[in-house]
Amino acid sequence: MTAHNGNDMNGYAEVIQVVGAMVIFSIILLSTNRYMLSNTQQQVASEVEMLAVTLGQDLIEEALLRPFDSVTVDGHIPIQMPEEFAAPNFPHTTAGNRSDIASYEGYHGWEEVMDTNLGPYEISAEVHYVTEDDPATPTTIRTRHKRMVVTVTNPSLTNPVRVAYVRTYNHD
Amino acid sequence: MNLGLSMSFIISGVLILMIATLNLRLGQHSSDLALHEMSKTHIEAVYEMLLFDFQKAGYDIDGAISSPIFLATPDTIAFEANVEADPVLAGNPPIVMWGYTDQMVPGSGNPDHRILQRIVSSNMVIDTPGGSIVTGATTDEVTNIGIGVTRFELQYYTAGSNTPMTFPIAASDMSEIRRIEIFVETQPREGVGMPGGEVRFPASQWRKTIVPPNLDL
Lengths: 172, 217
Fold this sequence. Notes:
By secondary structure, chain A is of the alpha+beta class. Chain A has one helix and five strands.
């Protein structure tokens, strides 16, 4: 009777060991799943980011084909530069269509949502004058340099993508 | 055999099955990552070529070409452009044609792979609006891109619209094209085997709207 009880105890001890092994393995399984999920998220994020950068670049490339300033739209070359350029703190565009924007600073305040198979992308643009000494900071004076910052967001992006370009008026 | 031992055998069996499944999933995951990287590399190679050509649509050394696009379908485009800025070809630029063909890619395990074709030729004459080549380009002038393109789609926009032009685009409207939107998808030649026998091909996509400067003049 005593020996029988001892065998039973031995059997249960093995069960406890195997259950312990299962718990340890489950922890490993969870962390492996987390690692794989994180990799997949990175994979998707890289696709989403690539398109976000492209959309930002598209807007900048399109803006670069527009005249530098509203006063140079018809090929007019200002005599007083930069005094003749548009006043700082550009008004937000009221254009309903990107193609209707006539000048570089006309993109200031542009916002649109683009639906793609990677979800909706919200694109917005800002244009400010900047100085040669500090091209990253907007200034409230007229200069020959304008900086466009395009911000692109997507529900799958943790942080928005920002693409910037400083354009200089070079017509001397 | 006592109950405890039997239970531990069963639990061990389940454990071994779980280890085997995890091993399989890890293998699939690694393959998936590697194949996705391969797709990305392929798409980068393709878009470098596309950008090189499309940006120069209508370009010639002596000045912009008037109405350079004469074929614009959802998967084929032909335009005049002196893409290499060759002085010998000034005034007589070659035709650049990009088209997604129905030809399968030899040796590919992906049934969706088709050849993307680039032709740059001064000898080529294209029947419009059909798009078939009447007088052929030489073999040297044809580049068959067989590195995994599964989708190649084109859309065209006029200057004042964000709505794509509807197909077929009339020959008289070709000169109105100002922007070209390109969508490309690549997939690897081999896929990742999934449970149930399904094969998954990790895709990479690229979309860009190009505003060729010489069309906007």
